């Protein structure tokens, strides 16, 4: 099997090395579009951040060419990546993935697997691509398959919401966030908002390898003290001292994050469906503002009261039916 990986970061190199160890021939796409050359491949893996998906489409169009029938798998986080790839290459060639193995990079650039987990697949079109499932099973990775790619990606989004945007805004690690009672109450509310949006979209949560998403969504329906106790123990034990992805992006001063396809996706669908999502709306707006104007971070760093105030104001606006407050950089 010939594999072409777009995105030689932690996830891309981990999956590439995994498949290579099981006999696949793996090639990594160059960073510069001008350096991309046509290639014959059976599987292309898109492992870039969501905000780089458009660039990945350009890379694949040049590398694969118009006559290629290569399958394109996307283990990216967030909502909307599959639709972009399907628009460019056709839905039947795209397979949605959810990777539940935390992967880091060593100093020499190799992938480091932190914990057990696995990968889940769902076809975007009508083709099942069973050979792809078999290839990953041969690699030794725990594999599951489901039929609804939207439910798959929204279920993974549920996991990505926990102790992510709030940690980034406040510049704290998850182990500290779980001790901030009022902020952790907002975390629970953010998850309830996502669950309400999924229900309105007609999607049921899908359990992922190592992560019982259905149980998680059931936990957030419990009274806050009970939900907080259950979630806090799991977060502190699982990734208490590991900076979440959105915090890493802010610290790297990239000028952008994936919040738009995470909390922002919940807020956008909430607006469209008439569902109130004040916590996710504030998290998305504030984090995007900080990413574009880093000096604003000082207003929120280790200031949970300020973030709480923003959410309270947004709740009042949404309950009154007023339009959401524009971000600092938007007219």
Labels describing this entry:
2 domains, N-(1-d-carboxylethyl)-l-norvaline Dehydrogenase, domain 2, 331 residues, Rossmann fold, alpha/beta, 7-stranded mixed beta sheet
Strand content: 5-15%
Overall mean pLDDT stands at 91
Low-confidence stretches: 326-331
Total DSSP E strands: 9
Radius of gyration: 20 Å
CATH-derived topology of the largest domain: N-(1-d-carboxylethyl)-l-norvaline Dehydrogenase, domain 2
Distance between the termini: 50 Å
How would you describe this protein?
This protein is α/β, with parallel strands linked by helices and 331 residues long. It has helices at residues 10-21, 53-64, 81-89, 130-138, 149-161, 165-170, 174-177, 181-200, 213-219, 224-239, 245-251, 263-273, 278-292, 297-300, 304-320; strands spanning 2-6, 25-28, 43-46, 71-74, 94-99, 103-105, 111-113, 119-123, 143-145. The protein has two domains: 2-147, Rossmann fold (3-Layer(aba) Sandwich), CATH 3.40.50.720; 154-320, N-(1-d-carboxylethyl)-l-norvaline Dehydrogenase, domain 2 (Orthogonal Bundle), CATH 1.10.1040.10. The longest helix is centred in the middle third of the chain and has 20 residues, at 181-200. A seven-stranded mixed sheet has the order 2-1-3-4-5-8-9, with helices on both faces. A two-stranded antiparallel ribbon has the order 6-7. Helix 8 crosses helix 10. It is globular, with a radius of gyration of 20 Å. Helices cover 49% and strands 11% of the residues.
């Amino acid at each position: 099997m010939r594999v072409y990986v777009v995105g030689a970061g932690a996830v891309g190199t981990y999956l590439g090395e995994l498949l290579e160890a099981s006999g696949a021939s793996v090639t990594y796409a160059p960073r510069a579009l001008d350096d991309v050359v046509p290639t014959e491949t059976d599987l292309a893996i898109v492992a870039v951040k969501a905000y780089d998906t458009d660039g990945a489409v350009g890379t694949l169009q040049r590398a694969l060419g118009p006559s290629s029938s290569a399958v394109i798998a996307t283990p990216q986080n967030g909502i909307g990546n599959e639709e972009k790839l399907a628009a460019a290459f056709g839905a039947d060639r795209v397979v949605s993935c959810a990777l539940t193995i935390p992967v880091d990079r060593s100093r020499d650039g190799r992938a480091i697997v932190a914990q057990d987990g696995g990968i889940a697949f769902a076809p975007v079109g009508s083709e099942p691509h069973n050979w792809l499932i078999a290839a990953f099973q041969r690699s030794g990775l725990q594999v599951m398959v489901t039929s609804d790619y939207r439910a798959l990606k929204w279920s993974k989004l549920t996991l990505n919401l926990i102790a992510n945007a709030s940690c980034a805004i406040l510049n704290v690690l998850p182990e500290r966030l779980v001790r901030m009672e009022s902020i952790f109450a907002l975390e629970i509310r953010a998850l309830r908002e996502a669950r309400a949006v999924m229900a309105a979209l007609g999607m049921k949560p899908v359990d992922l390898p190592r992560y019982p998403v259905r149980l998680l969504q059931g936990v957030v329906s419990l009274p806050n003290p009970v939900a907080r106790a259950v979630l806090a123990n799991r977060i502190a034990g699982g990734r208490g001292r590991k900076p979440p992805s959105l915090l890493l992006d802010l610290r790297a001063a990239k000028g952008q994050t994936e919040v738009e396809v995470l909390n922002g996706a919940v807020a956008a669908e909430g607006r469209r469906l008439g569902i109130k999502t004040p916590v996710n709306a504030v998290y998305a707006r504030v984090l995007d503002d900080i990413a574009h104007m880093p000096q604003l971070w000082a207003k929120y760093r280790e200031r949970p009261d300020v973030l709480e105030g923003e959410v309270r104001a947004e709740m009042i606006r949404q309950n009154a039916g007023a339009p959401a407050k524009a971000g600092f950089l938007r007219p």
